[in-house]
Amino acid sequence: MSKRKLLFKKIFCSNECDSEPFLDDGDVSLASFVYNVACEEIREDNDYSDDEPDMDGKDEDTYSILSFDEKVDAAVENFERVVALFKKTKKAKDSFLKSFEQWAPTCKNNIQLLKESAEAIQTDKFNSDIAKVVGGVVAAVGGIVFGISFITPLAVVTVPLAIGGGIASAVGGTVVAGTTGTEIALLKKKLEGARALVQQEMERFFAMTHWFSFPEEVKKALESLLSYNLLKEMAADLKKFFDEVTREANLTVGDFKLRFKEVLKLCMKKMITSSKITYEFGDDVAPVVMTFVFVFCLMKGQNRIVLDCVMITQRLAVGLLSVFDLGVQAGQLIGRLALKGAASAGEALAKFAIMEALVGLGVLIDVVNVVLSSIDLHKRPETEATKKIKEAADKLEKVFSFIESVYNEVKKYKTLARTDVNDWTAVVVSHIPDDAEKEDIKTAVKPHLPEEAWSCIKLKKLPTNGNNWLVKVPTNHSQLLLEQSHLIINEKSCAVTQ
């Protein structure tokens, strides 16, 4: 067996790996095909003959055994780092989605409460003989609640309050029975309910903050193998390919494989000519790296979410500049960092958005309570505090919109798991060639399913005459498959019936 094949088995085949393999058994056949194409493209690029390079040679065109082993170890170390981060990112993504779904209704309610409160103190329903209204005051710094002070009825008090946004007030007040007591009690009840949820929301916010750190880590790990911009370019090439073949009816497996090989060779050429892979890993180890990047990062549906998350973080970093008044110089600096892909820019600004929302929640409770405690309601002045309520509502709403847009993006790229599917639709594919394997059947089915459902194809051989198979797919993704009268499997037309 050649050294190239031995290297492939050592890296990708489960029975050769000392630890958990990088690829599932179902991906190894694809990886083998990709690996062979990568080797061919490198030989063509270097005008090699069909003879393999002598990895044991010591001249300037080849590498010593030590150099070869070092490059293999470096590649494996990078692979392990990427695989581990992909797994952690999957968990962080699930936590982010869950946290947002729990937090979103409360945040929307709080935004509405802010707006209603700002309007309420200016309306005639508070026009009464009340001189001062004294209520609970929450002291906050940076949006984190750390104390509650309730003022004794009929007591004249002075309440200092400092909020990160700049409100500081020392007010005196006395509770006086009046015609607006019911309205005030209802408003205070709303505020107290919101106040009770702040700690829960903070925990959910921090869970979302944790999510934003992973895309940058993954990006750095991938850039130890190749340029992120190149990876993004190849992802676009593959997306275009899959979009085209999915739209075509009665596409033969032969045509599918031919066109797939074209886009595969295009990506291999780009990695050879436009990346550092061959320079850093040499022509002997480079095909392994190229195979890992293409199969693990670009072809495995559940892993492409990682690349999309990196882009989401970058968009968030740039988009935040339009939400917050950071100053011209600060905005330009952060913008340059984000556009250059600085590792800290996206993560820092994402966390900044989270903290701004936390401050907004603190302002929601603090400022409105100050209003209830200190403003002479019957005069209904357009006070600084009232303006702050409106500002808090606007800022919190903008932050929510940005986090919601990230949520919507992440949710889009969800790969279905079989455990997520409750309803299945079955078809029978008849007279499949005897030499066809399960992967050949799946390859014929995949162009007629959305990509997110590719991992949810169930196959069962039927106990009937002929090589007939039952194929099950998720019902809500079965429409295109049900429109097919035949599937082409190993160049043979096989009837599809329900």
UniProtKB/TrEMBL annotation:
Gene3D superfamilies, alphabetized: 1.20.1170.10
GO cellular component: extracellular region; membrane
One BP term from GO: lipoprotein metabolic process
Keyword Iron among UniProt keywords: no
InterPro entries linked to this entry: ApoL
Record keywords, A-Z: Membrane, Transmembrane, Transmembrane helix
One Gene Ontology term of the molecular function aspect: lipid binding
Keyword set includes Plastid: no
Ranges annotated as spanning the membrane: 133-156, 162-187, 305-328, 348-372
PANTHER family given in the database record: APOLIPOPROTEIN L, APOLIPOPROTEIN L, 1-RELATED
Family from the record: Belongs to the apolipoprotein L family.
Identification of the protein by name: Uncharacterized protein
Organism the protein comes from: Argiope bruennichi (Wasp spider)
